[in-house]
Amino acid sequence: MQGTAIYPGTFDPITLGHLDLVQRASKIFSRVILAFATEGKSTMFSLDERMAMARESLPGVENVEIESFDGLLMKYARERGVHVIVRGIRAYSDFEFEFQMALTNRKLAPDVETMFLMPNEAYGYLSSSLVREVAKLGGDTSDFVSGPVQQRLDRLGAG
Ligand code: PNS
Description:
Structural class: alpha/beta
Bound molecules: 4'-phosphopantetheine
Helix content: 40-55%
CATH class: Alpha Beta
Largest sheet: 3 strands, parallel
CATH superfamily: HUPs
Order of helices and strands: EHEHEHEHEHH
Number of domains: 1
Radius of gyration: 15 Å
Strand content: 15-25%
Distance between the termini: 39 Å
Strand order of the largest sheet: 1-2-3
Shape: globular
CATH topology: Rossmann fold
């Protein structure tokens, strides 16, 4: 499909589930912007680290660009001239929040559509927050994240 999609998130850190979704989106759209939110949540990794981990985890995926945005996602989409947002739905439990967010965004920017993709079912249970928790408590996260992310978790003395 021609056109650009924004895949926004905190990605703290990016998981194998996120990477699976980026790859799927990159086959559907000619360009995908992986957009890192700078505000909103206190994060384990800095913005620079989160973006670097994504870059290092996506070698050879040529049509994915990594950017960050401040403030409202719809304002950023407008500024970039992008009309499609991609988000992942792992299980029904994700749906309510994603639906709320998509419809709020539609109210703010009626010309922007949100599309939901499902990651590989093998990653259906994965989340950044659980990766952070397991890593902080000294558990093995190597099945959940890419090599570059695991190296950073190891460097923090966790994971
Ligand atoms: O990875 P996350 O934390 O689920 O991503 C949530 C994110 C960053 C996509 C969402 O919080 C967001 O869009 N934040 C930007 C601020 C904004 O536009 N808020 C209104 C959304 S309805």
